[in-house]
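re: that chain from earlier
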Amino acid sequence: MSLANGLTYLAIPGPSVMPERVLRAMHRAAPNIYYGALPDMVSNLVTRLKQVARTDGHVAMYIANGHGAWEAAVSNVFSPGDLVLVPATGRFAHGWAEMAGVMGVETEILDFGKRATIDLDTLKDRLEADDGRIKAVMAVQTDTSTGVRNDIAALRAAIDETGHDALLMIDCMASLGCDRFEMDAWGVDVMVAGCQKGLMTPPGLGFVFFSDKADQAREDAKCVTHYWDWRRRIEPPYFYQYFDGTAPTHHLYGLDEALNMIDEEGLENVWSRHASIARAIWAAFDHWGSSGPLEVNIEDPSIRSHSVTALRANSEKGTALREWCETQAGLTLGIGLGMVEEGPEWHHFFRLGHMGHINAQMILGALATVEAGLKAVDLPHASGGIEKAAAVIAEESKS
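^ sequence. v structure.
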């Protein structure tokens, strides 16, 4: 017998849970795409997107997923033969580098493994040894595969300490609207994000935020094409140019409502909510793992993501746990991604997404389901993880 019938909970690290308000906003007839309410709404969306990114710079919107935003950013900055330095802390920095390589950009990866943040001294040593070829440093704030959170302000400071003029390009796919991000204050030149995680909208919109300094690089970029050209999409004289054709109308309605929800809560409060919920999750998993093989992939809580937690079961029962949670209880956990090549050890890893439209009761319910699953699949663990998480939630609610 399965107990999964009823409301299911998708706890993967994106797409995130879609709020009913967003889905209702999208449930409407197609609008006029030439004039009227829709064009008026989109200019306001641009303003509010920049507020979420904490920038007075520019944002180009694309009908694309995160990979499309990656390509757009690369297209507008680089020419074939340019060199980009990629400090990698998980699968997604490698993915962005691979895309740049296909476009003829030379990539140099500084790989810091899957359980640590960027080593800034190593980065500085490489920049100081550069002969002027490195055009940009391309990194990820939160790597969705490993759950590590890189310190972007410290990364900018490290670049500045060397006197290097490299652009700083940051992937915020899993962190925008979840973890604190200050584009202008932290000196970020290019930032890419998608709508389907912290912005709580079904996948389909990619964003590239960029500074005036990055736009200067666009002058000489030979990788740029008609569709990916960000200049055609900022403050265009005709509405269709925002998207180089027909607008993704219903995604825009959904995004508008998602941004309304962020505005109502307040961005600082959104960040605080994610941090509190993340600490409750860590309390449960750290306790369960105190007696048994289960462990959070990132040991140091200070560099853990507030939007996704990557777990090591150190046993093939990791997959058994995921399958039990989904088929028997209606909770879908994320697969392990990019931790090992396919084979028996692939089953040792799983992830819990906690981004966007989440609250305490959702996470406490998910954690209780995980604890039941640990018992059901006989994965050794210390009892009492739920009590640890509940204590954190109770304490956090007082602040």
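Residues 97 and 107 are 6 Å apart (CA to CA).
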